[in-house]
Amino acid sequence: MDTAAKATWQRIEFGRLPGRRFDEASVTDNLLFTLQSQVPGLLTYQNNQVKERDSGADWEWWIGDDQAGWICLRIQAKRVYEDNTYRMLKHPGAGEDAFQYDTLIKGCNPDQARYAFHVFYNGWPEGTFEQGTYWAPSARWNACPGLSSYKDCRHAEPRHYGCSIISSFYVKELSDSDIAAPAAARFRVQRYLSAAVPWSYAFGFPPWDPKREERWHPRLDRGDWVDRVHGTLEVLSRHGGASGARDASGHLGNIPIDRNQRTFELPPYIEAMRSSTPGRFEPASEDEAPAAPQTVIVERKSKRARKRK
Fold first, then answer.
1. pLDDT for the residue numbered 255
2. Which one, of 87, 174, 183, 191, lies nearest residue 139 by Cα?
3. Could you tell me if 59 and 32 are in contact, meaning their C-beta atoms sit under 8 angstroms apart?
4. 77/254 Cα distance (integer angstroms)
5. What gap in Å lies between CA 144 and CA 153, rounded to an integer?
6. Peptide bond into 194 cis (omega under 30)
7. Helix/strand/coil percent split, the chain, to 5
8. Tens of pLDDT, residues 117-160
9. Helix axes 24-38, 2-14, angle to 10 degrees
10. pTM score
11. How far is the C-alpha of 56 from the C-alpha of 163, rounded, in Å?
12. Rg (CA), the chain
């Protein structure tokens, strides 16, 4: 996912040239195609009949298995513009919702392991904000499990933020807190990157191994993967945000989670997708209409049933 994020950075940076532009939909299509081609067993479905307006989501991830339960992430993607803002955060919501992020949040509930997140697509030339770096001071650096500053961090880099993830609750808080300000101030990059992490961290914030100077020690016990994802999303959503996830990176297995919050009866459209041929799904009824234009099913093949707590 970090490799895909760096490729997205290059694409968005290239899109700043005259006559070049990549919108969120084209970047999302490319990202999900890349992930499907690289991750065996990943199921990705695209459905043009879906109205993004109704859910506020560009795509959704369903993660888990029938024994451990399922976690859902609904994601709204926004790209950075040449004025270094995420100005399309002002996009209106559905019905009486003021903004699109209001619609996204309304359709999710962390108490049911259904999370709302934004993914920001970033990319700009080196030196745009500060000479000699791609970083955008004064945004805080949340990507280092070793708690180093962005200048001292040796295992992550700003271009991993080519796809950065942030809880939509934080997006709403940041956007609504300065609602009367001009777009250049209200939606500036630094405000949101300070509360974001590289999108790969949503699948388990990597602890730092100082001896090997790499993110994952090959023999490290990562614990139950679905639990780790669940714990990370809890921290990113409700228990300290990005900085809390960084500080908790060494003991995510100890973060309290309630497995019973997960979904054990999947929506009809997910069950229908699981039983269909990838790329050939067509809704047979209104109940089978997906909630987002793109759906990704990350199913762990369980060896044995898990006891719920």
1. 76
2. 191
3. yes
4. 31
5. 6
6. no
7. 35, 15, 45
8. 999 999 999 999 999 889 998 888 888 877 788 888 877 889 99
9. 150
10. 0.90
11. 18
12. 19
